């Protein structure tokens, strides 16, 4: 049995996962990031202690942050109270077990590669389209982290006129572009905007497809993946047929025929499964 913990800006999820990738038991708890470092760390520990036992060899930690191999957190927009904190040391001194840390998007792509939509492929890119935009990379069936553990931060990629991928295609950014353009939908969200026949909404949707296409084509031309798996809240939008058609028009023929964009299969479970299998 393995123990994986997935820490996001809103919730903490822990799960016991079998060697056959089956979640045997899970628990969720609010992160309460606004209450500060000590509260968040204690919430993580309470999830771990509810699932831990002597048979658990290590604790896999998926966390929404750029994080070093030693556990030092940096650039975490939704967990800013933990910036500069060595989360591994904080957890290990209370659990007396080795903690293996990893960025949440890396855990996402690792899980989808081992069990989900990208199973069996050699080179995989995972893109999380949600509150922000993150990514993970598998090359030759191995997780690629980069020198400082920050490979795959696709959200920072500039798309047009100094605007980043995240500033244009994350959920909040789509809503902001819509409201700034004068859209009239009450309490707008990406799902409502994509489903609407309103003129402003249709224009925002068209622009979003354009920005997604530019970003994804750049990723494909740079990394040459076999498959791209989309996660996050926006992965539930019906974007795949059009994206797969449009990206092929902007790729060399050899790339166009060998890559596809698909929805994830594991949903919210990807973080804990990827964390649990950070060590094979």
Report what the structure shows:
There is one protein chain. This protein is of the alpha/beta class and 280 residues long. It folds into two domains: 2-102, Nucleotidyltransferase, domain 5 (2-Layer Sandwich), CATH 3.30.420.40; 117-264, 2-Layer Sandwich (Nucleotidyltransferase, domain 5), CATH 3.30.420.40. The protein has ten helices and 14 strands. It has helices at residues 37-51, 87-95, 104-114, 165-169, 171-180, 190-195, 199-223, 240-248, 253-256, 270-276, and strands at residues 2-7, 11-17, 23-30, 59-63, 66-67, 73-74, 99-103, 124-129, 133-139, 142-144, 158-160, 163-164, 227-231, 260-263. The strands form four sheets. It has a five-stranded mixed β-sheet with strand order 3-2-1-4-7. A hairpin with a 5-residue loop joins strand 2 and strand 3. Helix 3 crosses helix 10 (270-276) and helix 7 packs across helix 8 (240-248). The longest helix is centred in the C-terminal third of the chain and has 25 residues, at 199-223.
């Amino acid at each position: 049995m393995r123990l994986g913990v997935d820490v996001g800006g809103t919730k903490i999820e822990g799960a016991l996962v079998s060697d056959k990738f089956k979640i045997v038991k899970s628990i969720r708890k609010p992160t309460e990031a606004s209450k500060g470092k000590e509260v968040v760390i204690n919430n993580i520990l309470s999830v771990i202690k509810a699932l831990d036992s002597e048979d658990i060899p290590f604790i896999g930690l998926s966390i929404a942050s750029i994080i070093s191999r030693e556990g030092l957190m940096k650039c975490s927009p939704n967990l800013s109270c933990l910036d500069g904190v060595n989360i591994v040391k904080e957890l290990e001194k209370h659990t007396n077990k080795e903690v293996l840390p990893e960025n949440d998007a890396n855990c996402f792509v690792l899980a989808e590669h081992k069990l989900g939509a990208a199973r069996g492929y050699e080179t995989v890119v995972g893109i999380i389209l949600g509150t922000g935009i993150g990514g993970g990379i598998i090359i030759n069936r191995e997780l690629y982290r980069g020198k400082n553990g920050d490979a795959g931060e696709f959200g920072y990629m500039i798309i047009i006129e100094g605007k980043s991928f995240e500033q244009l295609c994350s959920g909040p950014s789509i809503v902001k572009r819509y409201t700034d353009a004068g859209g009239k939908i009450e309490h707008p969200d990406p799902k409502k905007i994509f489903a609407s026949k309103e003129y402003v909404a249709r224009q925002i949707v068209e622009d979003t497809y354009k920005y997604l296409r530019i970003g994804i084509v750049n990723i494909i031309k740079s990394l040459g993946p076999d498959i791209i798996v989309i996660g996050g809240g926006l992965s539930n939008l019906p974007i795949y047929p059009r994206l797969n058609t449009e990206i092929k028009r902007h790729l060399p023929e050899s790339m166009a025929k060998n890559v596809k964009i698909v929805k994830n299969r594991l949903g919210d479970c990807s973080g804990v499964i990827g964390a649990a299998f950070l060590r094979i």
